[in-house]
Design goal:
This is Metallophosphoesterase. By secondary structure, the protein is an alpha/beta fold. It is built from 4 helices and 15 strands. Strands 7, 8, 9, 10, 11, 12, 13, 14 and 15 form a 9-stranded mixed beta sheet that branches. A 6-stranded mixed beta sheet has the order 1-2-3-4-5-6. The radius of gyration is 17 Å and the shape is globular.
């Protein structure tokens, strides 16, 4: 079984005509560096718009942690979230929000219902990944971990995929869509804080790289257990 189709930091599930993104952490730029405050919203919008133009989804699911602040979002963060939902509608798709552990105030600003998890027509369950979903599914897609790995002296954001993950079903963990969120170096870990990744050594990292023309591609590697002897911890 091969990993699903990725585009940049997103995944596209063609059987469900759905694009999934996770961990936007809108407002993180405000918390880290006021000098990049004006760039955060446009950065998220530009990359989301590019992914939608390439994949042409009917639905876009935001898999949790749309907001960075744990409490009530700021007015600017609320504006960013609404702008993203508006961009999805402008592309002819339907925006769907799944709550993450940072999203306590999301229901007050999201233009529609906020779900704990969301089942797609192809049997995929999209959740955030900080809690174990109770619903059985054909496969699982989540975020939460912000996975990254260091290769050749460079830290790279990555996907995590295994054919036998949560409940022995195919499971995919997305990298953070936010370019301001810190990545969790998985090669330094024996386990991670997500019930959807019960065996970290079994996952295959999908490293985000750039081609010669600047486009993003995902390079899939063997399971982490096989890679560990070649990686610095």
């Amino acid at each position: 079984m091969t990993p699903p189709d990725t585009y940049g930091r997103t995944v596209f599930l063609p059987a469900a005509a759905t694009l999934v993104v996770a961990d936007l952490h809108a407002g993180r730029a405000t918390a880290t560096n006021a000098g990049i405050l004006l760039d955060e919203r446009q950065d998220l919008l530009d990359r989301l718009t590019a992914a939608m133009a390439a994949m042409e989804p009917e639905t876009v699911v935001f898999a949790g942690d749309l907001c960075h602040r744990f409490g009530a979002p700021s007015d600017r963060t609320a504006g960013t979230i609404r702008a993203l939902a508006g961009a999805v509608r402008a592309a002819g798709a339907r925006p769907v929000a799944v709550a993450g552990n940072h999203d306590g105030g999301l229901a007050g600003i999201w233009p529609g219902p906020v779900h704990d998890a969301y089942r797609l027509p192809d049997g995929t369950l999209v959740c955030h990944g900080h809690e174990a979903p109770e619903t059985d599914a054909e496969r699982y897609v989540c975020g939460h971990l912000h996975p990254a790995i260091e290769m050749e002296g460079r830290k790279r954001d990555c996907f995590l995929w295994t054919a036998e993950g949560y409940r022995d079903r195919p499971t995919l963990v997305l990298p953070a869509f936010s370019t301001f969120a810190a990545g969790l170096r998985i090669e330094r870990r024996d386990a991670v804080d997500s019930p959807l990744v019960p065996d970290l050594d079994a996952v295959r990292p999908g490293v985000i790289d750039r081609t010669d023309d600047g486009a993003a591609e995902t390079l899939w590697f063997p399971p982490l257990a096989d890679l560990r002897p070649y990686l610095r911890r």
